[in-house]
Amino acid sequence: MNKAFSRLLVAPMAALVLAAFALTPVAEAARGGGGGGGGARAGGGASARQVDSSKADARSNNVRSTSTNNVNSNRNTNVNVDKNVNVNVNHNGGWDNDYHPVAGAIVVGAAVAVTAAAIGSTVATVPASCVPVNYGGMVYQQCGGTWYQPQGPQFVVVNPPY
Amino acid sequence: MKLARFAPVLLAMALGAPLVYAQTAPAASAAQPPANPVDPATIQALKDMGAFLQTLNRFRASTTLTGERVLADGQKLMHTASATVDAERPNKLRARLSSARSERELVYDGKTFTIYFPAQKYYSSVAFSEPLAGLVSKLEERFGVQIPMSDLFEWGTPAAPVDKVESAMNAGQDFIGNDLCDHYAFRQGNLDWQIWIESGARPLPRKLVITNRADDARPQSVSIIEWNLKPPFNASSFKFTPPKGATKIEFVPVKTK
Q: Buried (b) or exposed (e) across A74-112, using 16+ Cβ within 10 A?
């Protein structure tokens, strides 16, 4: 399994860094008005500082499995169970580790190449025609065949989550 | 090492009874398993904790979680997250989840479940009517959304069957913070897990460690749980009112390919 990944992984992922979209309103939200007032973060408690993981090595996002957080659920914590096309129904390890797996994205991208924009590339804003959706407790922007995830103030192109 | 392992076989061959000896030798050298790997008193402690949890009508539980993710080559990275869950039985819940990657709020008033993303000011709502244990399992099954410390709602219910435990043992006592706790260890399926239950009149889970054996690297999570059994919330705490400027987005069910 790992070997197959490694071969596919050489690709253009250097630019890709997932993380960092924690606390600052993204461009989309800011445009929509409001700009994330204090009430919006009622429970937060966390500081207003924003995580910047732009220097993180691409390897740090190539996740094959995660720990599990509960004893009684049947959640499948193997992120990349099927290395070919099916990336994972249970795509995150739990509430603590909320992200779209890059390894899976690369594999699917290489195999199917359904998106117009390069997987892993980032943009400052998404087209006005994009539709935000919540899948698996994560926010995506769907723009035709291209999917984005918010990443700090930017958006990263990811593979279709479904 | 190899020589040592084969030595009995060679000896047996020399004695002219290779088949018989080769078959019996491993059994003779294997460690004797305990008569019953599931200690009944440990299972009883788990049941007592579950029963006590089910008696709590209102509580606030806060956790700091350390989790691990395994990279392609088996190297592990560690991350942390925190959450606070306010619960009122049978069917009210509010949770705040915080990690470096995202912050979310979950709100359930017994009729509608809402997830809110403060950074984007997006929210999604869906109708539910289950009590909390049912919400936990249905939400994960239908939407892939996990409620922090979901075990708290399942222990002491049929959703947490103790007969799935393959091994259970008492691991002695330990302190969590200033409180004396009983430490127990379990094996079931691909999970090894340990729990620290407060000793005395309040058998509350105070620490939970889960080792995922499905991966050779055995990623592990550690959750420390703090309790407030006289929580400050009230009925309005479980009502979601979209903040000004918030946008409702579609709540897409989990899809299988």
A: ebbbbbbbebeeebbebbbbbbbbbbbbbbbbbbbbeee
Round to whole Å and give the CA distance between B183 and B169. 9
In chain B, the N- to C-terminal Cα span, in Å, equals: 48
Contact between A36 and A44 under an 8 Å Cβ cutoff? The reply is: no
Give, for B224, the enclosing helix (H) or strand (E).
strand B220-228
Please name the amino acid found at residue B122.
Answer: Y
Distance in Å, alpha carbon of B257 to nearest chain A alpha carbon: 7
> Which pLDDT does position B113 carry in this prediction?
98
- 3-class SS shares of chain A: helix, strand, coil, % to 5: 20, 15, 60
Domains of chain B: 40-165+229-248 (2.50.20)
Are B188 and B181 within 8 A, CB to CB?
no
Taking contacts as CB-CB distances below 8 angstroms, the residues of chain A near B98 are: 43-46
Is B81 strand, coil or helix? strand
Is A120 in the B-facing interface, judged by CB distances under 8 Å?
no
Name, of A85-94, B31-40, B217-226, the range with top average pLDDT. Answer: B217-226
The pLDDT tens digits of the residues spanning B92-120 come to 999 999 988 788 999 999 999 999 999 99
| Spatial separation of the C-alpha atoms in residues B117 and B127, rounded to whole Å | 18
- pTM here is 0.76
Structure token digits, residue B101: 């990657």
Segment (H or E) for B80: strand B76-88
Cα–Cα distance for residue pair B100/A21, rounded to 1 Å: 8
Whole-number Å distance between alpha carbons of A119 and B52: 50
> Chain A partners of B244 at a C-beta cutoff of 8 Å?
34, 37, 39
For residues B139 and B113, is the Cβ–Cβ distance under 8 A? Answer: yes
Window 74-113 of A: residues touching B by CB (8 A cutoff) are 75, 77-78, 85-86, 89-99, 103
Three-state SS at B76: strand
* Nearest neighbour of B223 by CB, restricted to A9, A69, A132: A69
